[in-house]
């Protein structure tokens, strides 16, 4: 008699035993069916993420977390393109720099250039771009609490002397990074607001949004790194946008010194601007010097006469300030203005 026909004739105990055997067979079939193949056993990543970890003999669900998306920061979307007018302006002064540019910021004309599109280590001229990202995304009066993570500068780095727990406004941090070139201020401005990764990502996106192609940044500070590079052309463009859009930027970079009085939030800071161009050329009103071993001496300079602005960039220059002064003054002469430099005395015979 077939098994199914015999079931009604079984005793109650026999029926329960048969049901237990059937249930056991079902479990065995399910387990066997779900065993990994030889290839997936050799490569656990080939199995679904929900069944990769086996703990205590059972399958444990494992969910691989997605990376946290970076905050989306605002960008200035305007395409910058300068015209090359160097052929119409011969006779530039001798400049002892590896690369550079002189820009008429009002007309967008390049009056002089040397290798303007080669990307080089930019040193602390990087902070001009950091300033753009900060002023476009942060309220100058926003208070920033300085963290331990922001204060990892080496002994030879320029700093304003921040301590963990100090509370400064964005404006005060900009004062420090644009005058004494404070690396602690620049790092805190990124790390203790939106996070360094998001801030640097916005720096590179901002370069692209301006239509610039030569430069790439990995820190908001400017320390030497094989991937931290900028061209004179791009630095002149970034400086021009800062000067046009942010009066606070122009105010800070034009001052020879800034004093931040002590408060309940932080100690006193006396900030003396490192930009010597402000003291040796009367028309100068900014912008930012920098120096590292790889970059050499660099300077983005700006001067204004009769409402007319020129921007110069010199990279890896041996006579940084005197050459910047001579170049800017020559540029104003090209615009029909008299020189502000003393006339050289005739050589004695």
Describe the protein's architecture and organization.
With 349 residues, this protein is of the alpha+beta class. It has 2 domains: 3-60; 83-334, Beta-lactamase (3-Layer(aba) Sandwich), CATH 3.40.710.10. The protein is built from 11 helices and 12 strands. A hairpin with a 2-residue loop joins strand 11 and strand 12. Helix 5 (170-179) packs antiparallel against helix 6. The radius of gyration is 33 Å and the shape is globular. The N and C termini lie far apart (136 Å).
Per the CATH scheme, the topology name of the largest domain is: Beta-lactamase
CATH superfamily of the largest domain: DD-peptidase/beta-lactamase superfamily
Strand adjacency order, main sheet: 3-5-4-12-11-10
Element order: H for helix, E for strand: HHHEEEEEHEEHHHHHEEHEEEH
CATH architecture descriptor text of the largest domain: 3-Layer(aba) Sandwich
Largest β sheet strand count, sense and barrel closure: 6 strands, mixed
Provide the structure class.
alpha+beta
Low-confidence stretches: 1-8, 25-34, 36-56
């Amino acid at each position: 008699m077939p098994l199914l026909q015999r079931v009604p004739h079984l005793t109650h105990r026999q029926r329960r035993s048969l049901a237990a055997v059937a249930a056991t067979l079902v479990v065995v079939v399910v387990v066997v069916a779900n065993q990994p193949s030889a290839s997936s056993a050799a490569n656990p990543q080939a199995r679904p993420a929900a069944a990769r970890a086996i703990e205590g003999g059972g399958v444990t669900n494992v969910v691989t977390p997605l990376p946290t998306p970076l905050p989306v920061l605002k960008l200035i979307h305007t395409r910058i393109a300068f015209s090359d007018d160097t052929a119409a302006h011969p006779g530039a002064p001798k400049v002892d720099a590896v690369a550079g540019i002189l820009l008429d910021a009002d007309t967008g004309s390049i009056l002089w250039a040397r290798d303007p599109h080669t990307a080089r280590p930019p040193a602390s001229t990087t902070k001009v771009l950091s300033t753009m990202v900060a002023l476009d995304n942060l309220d100058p009066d926003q208070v920033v609490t300085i963290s331990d993570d922001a204060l990892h500068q080496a002994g030879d780095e320029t700093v304003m002397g921040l301590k963990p727990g100090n509370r400064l406004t964005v404006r005060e941090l900009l004062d420090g990074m644009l005058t004494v070139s404070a690396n602690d201020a620049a790092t805190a401005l990124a790390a203790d607001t939106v996070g360094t990764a998001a801030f640097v990502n916005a720096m590179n996106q901002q370069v692209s949004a301006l239509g610039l192609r030569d430069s790439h940044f990995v820190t908001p500070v400017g320390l030497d790194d094989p991937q931290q590079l900028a061209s004179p052309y791009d630095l002149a463009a970034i400086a021009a946008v800062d000067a046009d859009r942010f009066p606070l930027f122009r105010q800070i970079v034009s001052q020879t010194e800034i004093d931040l009085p002590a408060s309940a939030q932080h100690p006193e800071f006396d900030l003396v601007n490192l930009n010597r161009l402000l003291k040796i050329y009367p028309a100068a009103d900014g912008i930012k010097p920098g120096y590292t071993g790889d970059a050499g001496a660099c300077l983005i300079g700006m001067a204004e006469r009769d409402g007319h602005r020129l921007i110069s960039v010199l990279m890896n220059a041996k006579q940084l300030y005197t050459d910047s002064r001579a170049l800017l003054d020559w540029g104003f002469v090209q615009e029909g203005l008299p020189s502000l430099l003393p006339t050289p005395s005739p050589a004695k015979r």
